[in-house]
Design brief:
binds S-adenosylmethionine, alpha/beta, Rossmann fold, 50% helix, 375 residues, two-stranded antiparallel ribbon, 3 domains, Helicase, Ruva Protein, domain 3, single chain
């Protein structure tokens, strides 16, 4: 039987059962089964259908008659069945994560589902009305176990994260860029934005988060990101490419060991967690993020001491040193700057009111504090 004969057959079948618009209904079923648009039915009218395709069409005709339902309604009901099943699976996933102590269990479940489905989280609800195939279900299971049982951070499971609105690739060799660090980036941006041809050094670049964002936001700048970890530097380069950042380069360096030039700005978010606090960190952080990125294995001030001591050599006159600091470190870091002949020009709080950014300047002159925004 050729396609056109099948359309005719289906139309007559539906007419017999008093369906309104039987031709239209017949076309809908057949175009759905053959994955053609309705016009395609008439451009392929000589197509010979397989037994399976004919059986599938018969199955739909039979169901429409039995349920006295139009094709659209039948599909809608089918979708709402899927939705129910999928929503149930989403709820089970949330509970699984919650039982394993995952704080953001709701959000993380949605990330897992939307990643497995290859859709944006805001379209998840639409995607959940479709049947989930076995690959998607396996992917959901894999990610859920990693997040729940193994407490792997969601960013590492997804393999990417956003920082300052830019996409970043993430793996276990780099610190996941935190929103706290966006405050530091914002300050650096305002410090440098109306200067010409500035050179910036980012010490402990990790994923390249600070370097890449400053490179994107400050087209007038040339940025060098340094890190002691070669694996981190690989990721930083990937992220610079991902964001098509042309004015950023990376180099392996133990703090200043491979740095030779002078800069308008030295920025750093160094490993600042004291050894004893490191032991108390969340499982996600302690077991999955690089220890080298988190702690100095001492009192938390090793990098601040070392960088402030040497910064004078690598800063131009009037150049800035900007640090992210731990929740209780701003005062001591400010003292370190003063001891090393840097003038503290700004301490910036996070949204919770904790001082998290300390900025100093190498200058005898008064700094232009108005250019430094506060929160
Ligand atoms: C807290 S992470 C910051 C990563 C990134 N800048 C950010 O803000 O998301 C600190 C980084 O310092 C690097 N690091 C640790 N010791 C270092 C050293 N002696 N010299 C240079 N970088 C170092 C780590 O590898 C890590 O990437």
């Amino acid at each position: 039987m050729e396609l056109l004969e099948i359309v005719k057959f289906a139309e007559e079948y539906l007419l017999k059962y008093s369906f309104s618009k039987p031709r239209l209904e017949a076309e809908k079923i057949i175009s759905y089964v053959l994955n053609l648009d309705r016009i395609g039915l008439y451009t392929n009218f000589e197509l010979v259908l397989s037994i399976e395709e004919k059986n599938e069409i018969k199955k739909y005709l039979k169901r429409m008659v039995e349920e006295n339902s139009s094709f659209d309604k039948l599909e809608k009901n089918k979708n709402s069945d899927f939705k129910e099943v999928n929503m149930e699976l989403l709820e089970k996933t949330k509970k699984y994560l919650k039982d394993y102590g995952v704080e953001e269990y709701k959000l993380d479940s949605e990330y897992i589902f939307s990643t497995a489905l290859g859709c944006n989280r805001s379209f998840l609800s639409i995607q959940l009305s479709k049947e989930l195939n076995i690959e998607v279900l396996n992917e959901i299971k894999r990610m859920t176990i990693l997040r729940g049982k193994f407490r792997k951070p969601i960013q590492q499971i997804l393999g990417n994260w956003e920082f300052y609105g830019y996409p970043f690739k993430i793996n276990e060799n780099v610190l996941i860029p935190r929103s706290d660090t966006e405050i530091l980036v914002e300050q650096c941006k305002f410090l440098m934005m109306d200067k010409i041809d500035v050179k910036i050094l980012d010490i402990g670049t990790g994923s390249g988060a600070i370097s890449v964002v400053l490179g994107k936001e400050l087209s007038n700048s040339a940025i060098l990101g340094v890190d002691i970890s070669e694996e981190a530097l690989k990721m930083a380069k990937i992220n610079a490419e991902l964001n098509n950042t042309k004015n950023v380069s990376f180099r392996k360096s133990d703090i200043f060991s491979a740095v030779t030039e002078t800069y308008e700005l030295i920025v750093s978010n160094p490993p600042y967690i004291p050894k004893d606090e490191y032991e108390e960190l969340q499982i996600e952080v302690k077991n999955h993020e690089p220890k080298l990125a988190l702690t100095d294995n001492g009192d938390g001030y090793f990098f601040y001491e070392k960088i402030t001591k040497e910064a004078g050599k690598y800063l131009k006159e009037g150049g800035y040193l900007a640090f992210e600091v731990g929740y209780n470190q701003a005062e001591k870091v400010s003292d370190l700057m003063i001891q090393n002949k840097l003038k503290v020009v700004k301490i910036v709080n996070d949204y919770g009111g904790k001082a998290r950014v300390v900025i100093g300047i190498k200058s005898g002159e008064e700094a232009d504090v108005n250019k430094i925004i506060g929160l």
